[in-house]
Design goal:
Number of strands: 15
Structural class: alpha/beta
Number of helices: 27
Largest sheet: 6 strands, mixed
Distance between the termini: 59 Å
Low-confidence stretches: none
Strand content: 5-15%
Radius of gyration: 65 Å
Shape: rod-shaped
């Protein structure tokens, strides 16, 4: 609660100083005529509530050498200061109803416009709503800034992002050795595109058929001719032993028999080669079966040579060399995959297999009738060939992989160079994701901006929800309470449920009037349509009453009202007697609900009624009046009952003061004598004296009254007082010397007699 308000150099309140500033009470009332600083004092309280410095500085006292305003609001909870052109404290808990409240929130100059809609929005949603609205406005600004920063961060990352994955996927990329391999492939693919003509001239690699031993070699080696007579075999064997032909003799003889011509020996040309019977013997052995058997052996030998002899091995070696050259050429355009296996031992293995198998077949050829069995030599041939086959199988697999890669390169050569370059760029950007500090920094800035953006959006969403809930509750409250006060004050109009809007991030409120069951729009702006509206359907009194109803509903909605100071500045504008009384009742109700109530008015009777109705409150009353040569306004204690006394009572007091203490100017006092007597008899004997009869006429009326006049007993005293004061009451005779001043002693007797005559003083007892 404020104890004192000290104001220096604000408006006419220059002298509202520490020594002259009045102490305040729970209910403090200020009476002031126009121009005494009532509105200035109210403006100071409003400025303290809003923490607004401009309001104070705009009211700096004029004609005071531009002295700076200084204000001290002394309260139980600590002083609030205005010094150096600004408030030194947070907003004070004050609510003010005055012309500014009406103009800011309901209407201004009989007109409603957007500023009133926005002001009313603040009134309706209350302090918590205003806090949320301001918070939402800050969050909107923060969200806008955050969104801008996020876009800037996104733009900064634009050259870091691969074109083939999303931003989120790129940010999630971890370091991966495969990215270097991907870059190598992309660069080679680009080179392939750029050198497509050279790619077209390159050959794919050739696979090498894996050599094999003759399929029936084992059969050939073990084959014999069982139909040849055993005795013939023995005889032939003895013949070979005799001539020491050995195992080669069989083949030699067979060869010779095939060349017998005209029964002549193919070796010595002698005739009659069969004289000893040997040719016949040879024929028995080396017949058709033998020839077929030998053919099989010869075919196996030929097949072996075709597959494994030196010419075959030379062909394989040539293919290996050609493939190596081709692979080297391809390497600059494509990743070939596994390296072609080392085939250095391939020729050795093939030669070894050929040698061992050839030896076996040669032995068979030399002894075609005997089965050739040599496990070690067969194993040697098979082992060498198996090693060679394994080498070639691995080699062919690598060749096929290489050829698949070369086909890819050939396909890549068909893409555009821009696409190929993009693949290189994408690969490089993947690598840079975890290796380039600049990219890392831009990602971190983006993530930070994204987090700020999400926080701003979340905070804005939560605040919007809270503000919406507050709006809804407030709209219900104001719809109910404003209409309650309109009915209480006798206003026929009602309002619809207010609607609150945050369009454009600036809150505004709207409602319609309901008059005789019809909805009437308020009609915003000076160019409102020529239809019923706020301007032309409500009287001036109704409009100000509507504003007061909104203010009272605002206080009803304030959960901290018991901690606030409420200020009313002339709340009776255009109010009739009924609304005047209801306003007094409303203020009386507030007196017990708020921390302190300050009422300012130019109507002393209104203030007296407030004082009487708030009998239980601690009260203080002051009159703001000019002092210091009539230039500056100060407040002095006053009894409101004294301010409201009638002129008749005031004149009686002046007469009594003169009669008892000789106080007052005799020339002024003498005039009051006739006024007191005339007023008394007009009020007391209205049936006998017209309301405008003066004292001399009243004496005449008594004299000419038919019957006994009720004032006949005091007729002589009335006439004497008339005679004693008539010269002073009327102007001077222009033809006669002006009369002298009133005799103070004689006037004392006249005054005392007049007081006794009207019953204001008992007669002196003899």
């Amino acid at each position: 609660m404020f104890k004192k308000i000290v104001i220096r150099n604000v408006g006419v309140l220059k002298a509202f100083d520490a020594g002259t500033s009045p102490p305040l009470s729970q209910l403090t009332m200020f009476y002031a005529r126009n121009g005494r600083g009532k509105s200035t004092l109210t403006a100071v309280m409003r400025a303290a509530r809003d923490g607004c410095s401009n309001t104070v500085m705009a009211r700096r006292s004029l004609g005071n050498n531009a002295a700076d305003p200084e204000i001290t609001l002394i309260s139980d909870s600590g002083n609030r200061l205005f010094k150096g052109g600004k408030w030194q404290h947070k907003r004070a808990p004050i609510e003010v109803f005055d012309a500014t409240f009406i103009a800011d929130n309901v209407f201004a100059g009989e007109m409603i416009d957007l500023p009133q809609d926005r002001g009313l929005f603040s009134v309706i949603i209350g302090e918590e709503g205003v806090r949320l609205a301001n918070l939402l406005e800050r969050f909107n600004a923060y969200a806008k800034t955050a969104a801008t920063k996020l876009k800037e961060a996104e733009a900064a990352m634009a050259d870091d992002l691969p074109s083939d994955i999303s931003r989120e996927a790129f940010i999630a990329l971890a370091a991966n050795p495969a990215y270097a391999d991907r870059l190598d492939k992309a660069e080679k693919a680009l080179k392939a595109v750029q050198q497509a003509d050279k790619i077209a001239a390159l050959k794919q690699l050739d696979t090498i058929t894996v050599p094999e031993l003759p399929a029936d070699m084992a059969t050939v080696l073990s084959a014999t001719i069982p139909d040849i007579d055993a005795a013939a075999r023995d005889e032939l064997a003895d013949h070979f032993r005799h001539f020491k032909l050995g195992k080669q003799g069989e083949a030699w003889v067979n060869y010779g028999v095939e060349h017998i011509h005209d029964d002549a020996c193919p070796f010595c040309a002698r005739p009659n080669v069969d004289e000893l019977g040997m040719v016949t013997l040879y024929g028995q052995i080396f017949g058709e079966q033998y020839k077929a058997h030998m053919t099989t052996i010869t075919d196996a030998t030929t097949a072996l040579d075709d597959a494994l002899d030196e010419d075959a091995r030379t062909t394989i070696a040539a293919t290996l060399t050609a493939n190596a050259v081709s692979a080297k050429a391809w390497e600059q355009y494509v990743q070939l995959g596994p390296v072609l296996p080392d085939c250095a031992d391939l020729g050795i293995d093939l030669a070894e297999a050929h040698s061992a198998a050839k030896d076996l077949l040669d032995r068979k050829r030399q002894s075609p009738l005997d089965a050739v069995e040599d496990a070690m030599l067969i194993a040697k041939a098979s082992g060498a060939l198996s090693r060679a086959a394994a080498t070639l199988t691995a080699y062919n697999t690598a060749v096929e992989t290489t050829n698949a890669a070369t086909k890819t390169a050939q396909s890549a050569a068909a893409m555009t160079e821009d696409d190929a370059k993009l693949e290189v760029t994408n690969a490089k950007r993947r690598i840079a994701r975890n290796e380039d500090p600049g990219v890392q920094r831009r990602i971190e800035e983006y993530l930070a901006a994204s987090r700020r953006d999400e926080r701003a959006k979340s905070a804005r969403k939560v605040t919007q929800k809270k503000l919406k809930d507050t709006n809804e509750a407030a709209a219900d409250h104001y719809h109910l309470r404003v209409n309650h006060y309109l009915e209480r004050f006798g206003v026929s109009a009602r309002i619809t449920r207010p609607t609150n809007s945050m369009a454009g991030n600036a809150g505004s409120s709207d409602y319609s009037l309901v008059i005789r069951g019809e909805s009437v729009p308020r009609g915003r702006g000076p160019g409102a349509a020529p239809i019923p509206s706020f301007r032309n359907t409500l009287s001036t009194g109704d409009k100000t009453t509507l504003a007061l109803a909104f203010f009272l509903a605002k206080l009803d909605h304030d959960g901290a009202l018991n901690q606030k100071v409420v200020v009313f500045d002339d709340p009776l504008a255009s109010h009739d007697s009924h609304r005047r009384g209801k306003t007094v009742e409303a203020i009386k109700e507030l007196c017990g609900r708020c921390l302190q109530l300050i009422v300012l008015s130019h109507d002393e009777y209104f203030l007296r009624d407030v004082e009487k109705l708030c009998a239980s409150a601690m009260k203080a009353s002051y009159q703001m009046e000019y002092s210091d040569g009539g230039e500056w306004s100060a407040a002095k204690p006053v009894r409101l009952a004294d301010l409201c006394r009638s002129d008749h009572t005031k004149r009686l007091d002046k007469l009594a003061a003169y009669a008892d203490h000789r106080q007052g100017d005799p020339d002024d006092i003498v005039l009051h004598v006739r006024q007191v007597i005339e007023t008394h008899f007009r009020r007391s004997y209205t049936a006998y004296f017209p309301h405008n009869r003066n004292l001399g006429q009243m004496v005449w009326d008594i004299d000419h009254h038919v019957g006994t006049h009720p004032c006949a007993g005091v007729r002589d005293r009335m006439d004497a007082l008339n005679s004693a004061t008539c010269d002073n009451h009327h102007g001077d005779d222009a033809d006669v010397m002006p009369k002298k001043g009133v005799d103070p002693d004689a006037l004392k007797v006249i005054v005392s007699d007049a007081l006794e005559l009207v019953g204001a003083r008992r007669p002196v007892q003899e």
